[in-house]
Amino acid sequence: MSSVLDHIHGKTFHGRHGNIKNNFSYGVDYILTDLTNTNGPLFYSRNNKNLISIYDNDYGGLSHKETGLDWVRKILLMYGFKNLLNGKIFLLAQPRVFNHVFNPVSFWMIYDEFSSLRLVVAEVSNTFGDRHSYLCHHDNMSEIKKNHTLTARKVFHVSPFQEISGEYKFRFDITDQFVDIWIDFRNNDKGVLATFSGVRQKLTNRSILSTIIFRPFGSFRVLALIHWQAIKLKYKGATFRKRPVPNSKDVS
Q: Which of 104, 175, 245, 252 is most buried per CB count within 10 Å?
């Protein structure tokens, strides 16, 4: 599996379960890279300002001094996945645009030495600056395939309109041509279905300029849309919950 630096002009969908309905969909840009690729087009940088960029310190547990790829490798050792250090580790995340970023969720795709997907770290951030990562894998560490469902108990405050209880169900379909991710959060009859899908293409100056033209505000736009949906939910009568004290354990 060679070095990767791909651009996904994707689309995300969110649909709320329960009596108060609220669905929306919008375009969003993600970068898929293994962070060992130091080469890239002119308008992209790693750990430096540019039109778009990826910074290591935007990713990783907030309670650890390590960030980015160093943090993931430490987590693999801490949780008994030393054997996966011989494979590729890809980051799927929204890049900084004009040096600003907010990632509601990023994904570390961790492959074994035979290029089989074995573990996904779903790194979730909220608008309060908190972060938690969910380790998604089969109990027997078998290969993760597109028709497989992985579960994780919710322990992190994301939306003030959802309780910290219930369960996430994840599905990942990652091929050489496209990315398709499905997350279904259920808390009894409430919850949210969130999806992200898009075609993989090589990151180029042309694809970057397309992003700047059609989505010039990057994650500022994402934050604005999140707050707009919050206003709509409040208007519809959804219960607002204050931010609790974050869980001291930032990986589960």
A: 104
pLDDT, residue 72, reads 95
Query: 247, 155 in Cβ contact below 8 A?
Result: yes
- What is the token pair recorded at 163? 């309780």
Q: Which is it for the CA torsion 197, 198, 202, 208, positive or negative? A: negative
Burial of 84 per CB tally in 10 Å (0-12, 13-18, 19+): buried
84 by DSSP, 3-state: which?
helix
In this structure, is residue 245 part of a structural domain?
A: no
Give the best-scoring range by mean pLDDT among 36-40, 132-136, 247-251. 132-136
- Domain assignment present for residue 93? The answer is yes
28 part of a folded domain:
yes
Measure the CA–CA gap between 115 and 20, rounded to whole angstroms: 42
Q: Within a domain: residue 26?
A: yes
Paired residues of 136 in beta bridges: 120
Tally the domains of the chain. 1
Q: Considering the entire predicted model, what is its pTM?
A: 0.93
Mapped onto helix, strand or coil, the DSSP state of residue 126 is coil
Q: Are the C-beta atoms of 216 and 27 separated by less than 8 Å? A: no
Which residues are CB-neighbours of 236 under 8 A, at least 6 positions away? 20, 22
**Sequence letter at residue 23:** N
Domain containing residue 152: 5-236
